[in-house]
Write a structure and sequence with these properties.
This protein has about 425 residues and is an alpha/beta fold. The chain has 12 helices and 20 strands.
């Protein structure tokens, strides 16, 4: 097995960074194929913590090349800050980090638009404010700046002037805000271009060669299926294809095959930002889970909303991304709680649904819960758990029809049990 996808199965923050870092030890390449610095992927090794936003979570492994592919929206200034942070921990040479020449650039205009829309709109999405949506809009509108445009100041100025045609009107008349001229923005981006030049390449051909040669390639998704622009809880979603389908457009896999699609599932549910979340807990136990799980956004620091495990959304995610196994994370957070519930179906207009199909209005879904026996486990024994925890794991496997291949029970890299072989 040479290709593996890591896909978030909920609303993001499931522990993708930790699992990518773990399995990245065996990979030749780790590829980010969508999203941008809205992502926050945490890796903890010993006392050292690192949060990656754009750089793939394979970066700590010397024999692995990290690729930012063309489906990503790329913020050069934030990238350089992040790279310096990584370089304080380990040396990063240009042969270990590659950026697609066709990735879409996030400009100052995109961040301004994101901030003003969120401030003024009647339908607040609760975005991360990083300019992700506006940057993808420009890509689809065919007026985006691509990474390869950063190396020619005249061309960059011309393109930014074109991109500004409509935005200038919005900044002046709708949002009444200051904004940099195309010339100023071009100079700023050009300077960053000079610094990133050494990392920029045709990543399509790199991945093409790697897969043809049977190299081990891991595709690291950002966000989660329920935040996908097409599959997610629209309009409260991000602007990219966060599921497995995004790999094909965002990175390109020439043989058309991704062998294993590993869905990352937090043992309960969290969500940051606006939008429906059927199992959100209003009672005190929700706050307890939030505190024990330290549920604060890795990118914005916002408090994550917490709820019980939602099997209908997981069933849907498994189908929507053809997941073949799952990694169940943060089980330690539930250990020792006096209550344990799992949502097995929703009731909407008097009917019961066990899968969160797109036709359902999640804001109207009343969660139907099974009360389970709470468990307490110290996770010291690999493969053998308290009987109540065993039941929890089996219930999930039976409902989703795929195995739990990984159990994570703490933030540290080593706090994991592998129940299945990946990249064998
Ligand atoms: P990602 O966006 O999917 O990579 O996830 P985040 O890094 O945003 O959020 C996951 C958080 O949970 C991070 O703080 C991780 O360090 C932490 N984490 C990951 N796995 C576990 C686990 O099994 N137990 C605990 N307690 N924390 C975990
Ligand atoms: P990782 O990769 C959790 C959410 C935002 C907001 C919506 C749209 O760390 O799991 P955007 O800035 O993308 O336009 O915001 O998506 N969101 C995330 N939530 N984890 C993430 O990434 C997220 N990236 C975006 O909170 O609700
Ligand atoms: Mg995150």
């Amino acid at each position: 097995m040479n290709t593996l996808a890591i896909i978030g199965a909920q609303w993001g923050d499931e522990g993708k960074g930790k699992i990518t870092d773990l399995l990245g030890q065996k990979a030749d390449y780790v590829v980010r194929f969508q999203g941008g610095n809205n992502a926050g992927h945490t890796i903890i090794v010993g006392d050292s913590k690192i949060v990656l936003h754009q750089i793939p979570s394979g970066i700590l492994h010397e024999n692995c090349t990290s690729i930012i592919a063309h489906g990503v929206v790329f913020e050069p200034e934030a990238f350089l800050t992040e790279l310096n942070m990584v370089k304080e921990k380990i040396p990063v040479t240009a042969d270990r980090l590659k950026i697609s020449l066709n990735a879409t650039v996030i400009t100052s205009y995109h961040k301004l638009l994101d901030a003003h829309r969120e401030g003024k709109s009647k339908v607040r999405i609760g975005t991360t404010g990083k300019g992700i949506g506006p940057a993808y809009e420009d890509k689809v509108a065919r007026r985006a700046i691509k990474v390869k445009d950063l190396f020619n100041l005249d061309l960059l100025t011309t393109k930014l002037n074109h991109a500004l045609e409509e935005k200038a009107y919005l900044f002046e008349h709708v949002y009444q805000t200051e904004y940099p001229s195309a010339e100023e923005e071009a100079k700023r981006l050009y300077a960053f271009g000079q610094e990133i030049f050494q990392y920029v390449t045709d990543t399509f051909s790199l991945i093409d060669r790697a897969t043809a040669e049977g190299k081990k390639v891991l595709f690291e998704g950002a966000q989660g299926v329920l935040l996908d622009i097409d599959y997610g809880s629209y309009p409260y979603v991000t602007s990219s294809s966060t599921g497995a389908a995004g790999i094909y457009t965002g990175a390109g896999v020439t043989n058309g095959i991704v062998n294993e699609k590993l869905g990352i599932v937090k043992a309960y549910t969290t969500r940051v930002g606006e939008g429906p979340m059927p199992t959100e807990i209003a009672e005190e136990i929700g706050d307890r889970i939030q505190k024990i799980g330290n549920e604060f956004g890795a990118t914005t620091g916002r408090r994550r909303r917490c709820g019980w495990l939602d099997l209908p959304i997981l069933k849907y995610s498994v189908k929507a991304s053809s997941m073949t196994s799952i990694a169940l994370t943060k089980l330690d957070v539930l250990s020792g709680l006096e209550e344990l519930k799992v949502c097995y179906a929703y009731e909407i207009d008097g009917k019961e649904y066990d899968c969160a199909y797109p036709g359902l209005d999640l804001s109207q879904a009343k969660p139907l819960y099974k009360n389970l026996k709470p468990f307490t486990d110290d996770f010291k024994k690999d493969g053998s758990y308290a009987p109540e925890l065993d039941e929890y794991i089996k219930l999930i496997e039976e409902n989703l029809g795929i195995p739990v291949g990984i159990i994570a029970y703490g933030p540290e890299r080593s706090q994991i049990h592998l129940r299945k072989n990946y990249f064998h």
